[in-house]
Amino acid sequence: MKLVEPEIPHGDEEVAEIPRPPRPERRRVYVSLALTLGVLAATVVAVYLAFPKRNNELVTEALEAHRNPGRFQLERPSAAELKAWTVGVVGGSVPWPSNLEVIGTWQIRILRRPAALIRFSVGGDQVTLMAMRAWDAPPRKYRRHDGDDLAVSWRRGPWTLVAVGPAAHADSWKAPLHVP
After folding, report:
1. How far apart are the first and last CA of the chain?
2. CB-based burial label for 124 (10 Å; 0-12, 13-18, 19+)
């Protein structure tokens, strides 16, 4: 019966390292590249899963506000009342169309920022125009057909404007609202 293996060192004997051939240089590069690309791909996927696309939140909120306006803050305001209300809501004078009948105004908050909405009567159709101070770089002009409604977003100076109205009569309300 053997109690000690003769090939296993014991005590203070030194173990000679087994010589191995060096790794090829390209393998080291490929392993590093594969690891880096894997981490990058996982990060991109995680960001897209954690932060879904907003899909132009302003247009979405304007469409919802057009369909469900809620209670008007001002009903049929004069031009002076409209200007004062606008300055109080968004902090500046918005270039509203001046020759249209105003049905009512209300305000909402989009992404924690104030937006002013005005309901106009244009040729028998009710059209909602929303104004908000621009803080990002959205597309210069954005259109979305949603059911029977058409929403158009555009920039005018420091303002992002969104007009929402019936898609069937878009030609009749776009010109008076100065929609590009």
Report:
1. 98
2. exposed
Point out which residues pair with 122 in neighbouring strands: 125
CA distance 170 to 5: 93
| d(C-alpha 122, C-alpha 27), whole Å | 71
Rg (CA), the chain: 32
Which residues partner with 162 through β-bridges? 130, 153
Residues 24 and 164: their CA atoms lie apart, in Å, by 65
- For tokens 């954005």, what's the residue? 142
Sheet order of strands, 149-156 included: 74-75, 101-110, 113-122, 125-133, 159-166, 149-156, 141-146
State the number of CA atoms in the 13 A half-sphere of 27 facing the CB: 3
Structure token digits, residue 75: 């009903």
Question: What does the block give as tokens for 179?
Answer: 């929609």
Chunked mean pLDDT (size 10), the chain, 180 residues: 60 70 73 92 91 77 85 88 91 87 90 90 89 76 88 88 90 87
Provide the β-strand partners of residue 150.
145, 165
At 57, is the secondary structure helix, strand, or coil? helix
Report the C-alpha dihedral over residues 82, 85, 86, 88, rounded to 10 degrees.
Answer: 160
What is the CATH T-level fold of the domain 57-174, as seen in this structure? Answer: Phosphorylase Kinase; domain 1 (3.30.200)
Specify the pLDDT at position 36. Answer: 94
Which pTM value belongs to this model?
Answer: 0.68
